[in-house]
């Protein structure tokens, strides 16, 4: 890989050759894949990109840490739509709002971007088996992307994982271990198993290539906005790999001169589990918290990528916002009704954060904001029904329909 220099520890600065099975630094720090931007600049231009037909994350190969002859992974990951949400922007009293619907990825979450990268690197490593522990989406995306590539998966999920995600795992043929405990407990068991059997490791924050996959969401947003940089990009945060990837992608584009400034990040967490935001807000090191939110994908009490995430938020002069489960459910309803976008609770937490910051007057009235919806609502229908209610249920009878409309105060339009 001519365009990749090495993996560099974010804690102690030690560098490692960028082999496919790279994990963490001997000091325990997380590695950051470092590029030769001068070389990339000499081979990659906006015109090269514009002429390219590929509509997956692999259209950004020049900025991705894979060998030139590593094949694209089979599923179409990435190139999700970026909608301008005019109605919602008006309601929130903000200049412009865009919604990036990453729930439209093949297994319905942004995690597909990291899992496709994991599959590409596992192939380079000659591995036949990949494993991970996950709150749910990393698992289902890995199982799907690996199935399409003919690789076997061992997946560890906490027993609270919603049925939709477990159904995906079973459908994709993963060997699934549902761990009776927290995400922390799940992670520990997966780590021991991976050490024991030497599987390819797709654990967030251990494998440094994953956030390189996730950064493609930033590359896409910027290309879709024709390189016009928004003021803010809002995203939900659990382990912190996603926001770190988002920031990496933006910095890459800045380094090669595709954009001329950087947006501020909005880090959205759940009030019941916000260790990273709390660290930013108090200026103290992060402390573990309970995993107390219905937004299961970001119920991460012990964030695995705290260093990179905190750095991303600080470097971008970012904002933090913590939202209650009630505010998350309200955002789910609001996005559905104003945009036709169906997000899972963690998927809409960024939007809930934008709404709250608008209400608190913390965003400029003419600001341009991108809100990333990170996962699809069909993964967790029980919570959606709780947020948005049950339908009118009656026998097939016109009189009863009229009665039900009257009872619900529905004035029928013609
Ligand atoms: C994993 C996930 C996140 C958060 O990503 P982290 O890397 O854990 O911070 C947000 N939303 C959804 C839907 C996710 O699956
Ligand atoms: Zn180190």
Account of the protein in words:
This protein is an alpha/beta fold and 414 residues long. The protein contains 16 helices and 13 strands. It has a 6-stranded mixed sheet with strand order 4-5-13-10-11-12, with helices on both faces. A hairpin with a 5-residue loop joins strand 1 and strand 2. The chain is globular and about 70 Å long. The mean pLDDT is 95. Bound molecules: pyridoxal-5'-phosphate and zinc ion.
Percent in strands: 15-25%
Query: How many DSSP-defined strands?
Result: 13
User: What Rg is obtained from the alpha carbons, in whole angstroms?
Assistant: 21 Å
Number of helical elements: 16
Secondary-structure content class: alpha/beta
List low-confidence stretches. none
Largest sheet: 6 strands, mixed
Kindly report how far apart the N and C termini lie: 63 Å
Which molecules other than protein and nucleic acid are bound?
pyridoxal-5'-phosphate, zinc ion
Helix content: 25-40%
Strand order of the largest sheet: 4-5-13-10-11-12
Large-scale geometry: globular
Mean pLDDT over all positions: 95
Helix-strand topology string: EEEHHEHEHEHEHEHEHHEHEHHEHHEHH
């Amino acid at each position: 890989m001519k365009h990749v220099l090495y993996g560099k520890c974010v804690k102690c600065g030690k560098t490692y050759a960028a082999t496919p099975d790279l994990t963490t630094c001997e000091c325990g720090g997380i590695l950051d894949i470092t590029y030769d931007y001068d070389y990339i600049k000499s081979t990659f231009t906006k015109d090269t990109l514009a002429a390219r037909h590929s509509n997956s994350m692999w259209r950004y190969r020049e900025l991705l840490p894979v060998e030139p002859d590593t094949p694209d992974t089979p599923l179409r990951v990435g190139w999700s739509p970026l909608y301008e949400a005019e109605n919602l922007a008006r309601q929130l009293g903000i200049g412009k709002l865009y919604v990036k619907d990453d729930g439209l990825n093949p297994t319905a979450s942004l995690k597909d971007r990291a899992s496709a990268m994991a599959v590409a690197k596992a192939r380079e490593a000659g591995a036949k088996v990949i494993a991970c522990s996950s709150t749910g989406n990393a698992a289902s995306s890995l199982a799907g992307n690996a199935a399409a590539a003919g690789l076997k998966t061992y997946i560890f999920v906490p027993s609270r994982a919603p049925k939709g995600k477990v159904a995906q795992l079973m459908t994709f043929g993963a060997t699934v271990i549902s761990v009776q405990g927290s995400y922390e407990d799940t992670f520990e068991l997966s780590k021991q198993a991976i050490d024991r059997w030497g599987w390819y490791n797709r654990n967030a924050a251990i494998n440094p290539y994953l956030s390189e996959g996730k950064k493609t969401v930033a590359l896409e947003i910027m290309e879709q906005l024709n390189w016009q940089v928004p003021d803010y990009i809002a995203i939900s945060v659990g382990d912190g790999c996603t926001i770190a990837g988002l920031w990496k992608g933006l910095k890459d584009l800045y380094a090669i001169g595709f954009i001329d400034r950087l947006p501020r990040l909005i880090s959205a967490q759940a009030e019941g589990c916000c260790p990273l935001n709390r660290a930013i807000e108090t200026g103290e090191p992060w402390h573990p918290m309970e995993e107390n939110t219905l937004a299961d994908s970001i119920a991460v009490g012990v964030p695995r990528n705290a260093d990179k995430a905190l750095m991303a938020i600080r470097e971008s002069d970012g904002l933090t916002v913590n939202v209650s489960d009630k505010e998350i459910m309200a955002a789910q309803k609001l996005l559905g009704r104003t945009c036709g976008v169906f997000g899972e609770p963690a998927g809409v937490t960024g939007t809930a954060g934008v709404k709250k910051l608008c209400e608190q007057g913390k965003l400029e009235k003419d600001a341009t904001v991108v809100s990333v919806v990170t996962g699809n609502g069909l993964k967790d229908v029980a919570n959606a029904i709780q947020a948005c209610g049950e339908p009118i249920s009656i026998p097939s009878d016109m009189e009863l329909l009229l009665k039900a409309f009257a009872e619900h105060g529905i004035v029928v339009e013609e």
